[in-house]
Amino acid sequence: MDSIFLLVPIVIFFVACAVKLFFWAVNSGQYDDLETEGRRILFDEDEPRRPKEGEQSRCSSGEDDAGESR
């Protein structure tokens, strides 16, 4: 019985924190658009990725896909 006096306030604290985090997520826009991210992964990008400055692409290094020199 003594443990209930300790556990009930702890549970109330955790529930209050969970409710506060939920309302924070809703107010900050976490749930505004649920469909775009699910669809974005299904489609390729329109433009291929460009190598950053200083990087060489695999094709320009003189090797083909099998790793053999030309």
From TrEMBL:
Superkingdom field: Bacteria
Keyword Transmembrane helix annotated: yes
Ranges of Basic and acidic residues composition bias in the record: 42-56
Protein name: Cbb3-type cytochrome oxidase assembly protein CcoS
Residue segments, region Disordered: 42-70
Residue ranges of the TM segments: 6-26
Pfam families assigned to the protein according to its UniProt record, in alphabetical order: FixS
Signal peptide coordinates: none
Organism of origin: Microbulbifer hydrolyticus
Statement: the UniProt record of this protein carries the keyword Nucleus: no
Keywords: Membrane, Transmembrane, Transmembrane helix
